[in-house]
């Protein structure tokens, strides 16, 4: 469900409580416990448990990273489409913007995104610099 509070540079990052405060800690603690048990009781079975716990922890992290990468790709597409609609004669400039820049530009309202996109392209601004330059913040309440 989308949040209703106004978003800005200071508060736009989000935690997914179920992932960040339950799933990730459970797998991290499980890995640590299996390492401790291996040290206390060396053997092939405790060693295998460490390998399995590490594989599970890495799988959880990779799944999270894959989901974020898909979101980044969708944002890139959405922003390119928005910019083409707002500045159709500057298609070549739009294509020069990096994924990182497009992700930063998603927070700029339509009335300032064209100028900010031009600055981002010419000054090689990064995602964080673009977000700091946004004056009229357009919230992204769906990103996890």
Describe the structure.
By secondary structure, the chain is mostly helical. Helix content is about 70%, strand content about 0%. It is built from six helices and no strands. The protein has helices spanning about 15-40, 45-85, 90-95, 100-105, 110-125, 125-135. The N and C termini lie close together (about 10 Å).
Total DSSP helices: 6
- Tell me the radius of gyration: 21 Å
Class by alpha and beta content: mainly alpha
Total strand count, please?
A: 0
Shape, principal axes of CA atoms: elongated
Strand % is under 5%
Overall mean pLDDT: 90
Task: Tell me roughly what share of residues is in helical segments.
Answer: over 70%
Largest sheet: none
Query: N- to C-terminal separation?
Result: 11 Å
The SSE string, one letter per element, is HHHHHH
User: What's the domain count?
Assistant: 1
Poorly predicted ranges (pLDDT <50, ≥5 residues)? none
Blueprint of the fold:
Layout: H1 17-40, H2 44-86, H3 91-96, H4 99-105, H5 110-123, H6 127-133
Summarize the structure.
This protein is mainly α and 144 residues long.
Characteristic terms for this protein:
144 residues; 6 helices
């Amino acid at each position: 469900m989308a949040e209703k509070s106004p978003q800005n540079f200071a508060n736009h990052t989000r935690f997914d409580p179920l992932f960040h405060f339950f799933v990730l800690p459970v797998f991290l603690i499980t890995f640590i416990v299996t390492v401790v048990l291996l040290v206390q009781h060396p053997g092939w079975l405790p060693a295998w448990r460490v390998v399995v716990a590490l594989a599970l922890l890495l799988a959880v992290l990779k799944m999270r990273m894959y989901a974020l990468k898909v979101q980044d790709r969708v944002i890139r597409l959405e922003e390119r489409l928005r910019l083409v609609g707002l500045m159709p004669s500057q298609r070549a400039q739009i294509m020069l913007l990096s994924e990182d820049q497009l992700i930063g530009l998603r927070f700029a309202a339509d009335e300032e995104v064209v100028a900010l996109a031009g600055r981002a392209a010419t000054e090689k601004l990064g995602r964080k610099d673009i977000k700091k330059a946004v004056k009229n913040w357009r919230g992204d309440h769906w990103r996890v």
